[in-house]
């Protein structure tokens, strides 16, 4: 009898709580209200719409799921995306924002930085450090679940990103703000030589692309990022202190992947099944290395421009 009463109480409680939460969320613009992670949709989007990136699909869906399941994470989720131009790095970062927040990428809690726009002058690093720290701290105080996306890290002045070190580690709760619930995404082409080399060697050895594992790449990317002078993580304490949860390698795309990009974009234009354009665009891309010509030098980046030419 007491079990029955307990169940009844819990059901009633959750219903009443749900009603109050709805009223609260309709009156406030709290970030917890807008935070509506949909892991199934994220996985579906990753596995269906990102071509040729088995490592990205596995790492991103696993890390995000693990992080969100933990109601009190010990440290924020810090992912660093690497790979050549046009392989899907910015696209995947948008998918994350889209499936975490009700307002998707327009959510006021998803923040995107592009260094050439926000930190254009290397001489002003000192000022930028103060601004960036204040900005991140302010946003985390407002919303512990904030997402920060730093794109094109190869153009970020070195010495700037280290100001975020206290936020990226297992820091304590400061002034009631839990810094450990945030998500940080860093994006750069740094490490592309190492990633592409592994992909070419695997192809030359006749192995399946899916046989490439994260172990083949994780260490070498970290090393390149730390030692490469032209990128925001050059000799950074963020790398030295191992504050990146996972390096996410984007493999170079082969012609069949480029053609899938063409097909998908043609469908969006209402021209599904136009095989001539698919062939023409696929054949018009440049491929490396010579000899071999396995991978598109611009990934899927030039696809929409070329479709306009051939359609
Ligand atoms: N792996 C992929 N699967 C499906 N579409 C892709 C993929 N990679 C790129 N695309 C398509 O190409 C466009 C450009 O990709 P994206 O902007 O994500 O490249 P990027 O890796 O960020 O390149 P860059 O380093 O030049 O910024 C995307 O909008 C998408 O349409
Ligand atoms: Mg990009």
Automatic annotation (TrEMBL):
A molecular-function term among this protein's GO annotations: ATP hydrolysis activity
Q: Which UniProt keywords apply?
A: ATP-binding, Endoplasmic reticulum, Glycoprotein, Nucleotide-binding, Signal
Q: Where is the Torsin-1A C-terminal domain?
A: 256-308
Q: Name one Pfam family in it.
A: Torsin
Q: Which residues form a coiled coil?
A: none
InterPro entries linked to this entry: P-loop_NTPase (IPR027417), TOR1A_C (IPR049337), Torsin (IPR010448)
Record's subcellular location: Endoplasmic reticulum lumen
Leader sequence segment = 1-18
Superkingdom of this entry's organism? Eukaryota
The protein's name in its UniProt record: Torsin family 2 member A
Q: Which organism is it from?
A: Cynoglossus semilaevis (Tongue sole)
Q: What lineage does the source organism belong to?
A: Eukaryota, Metazoa, Chordata, Craniata, Vertebrata
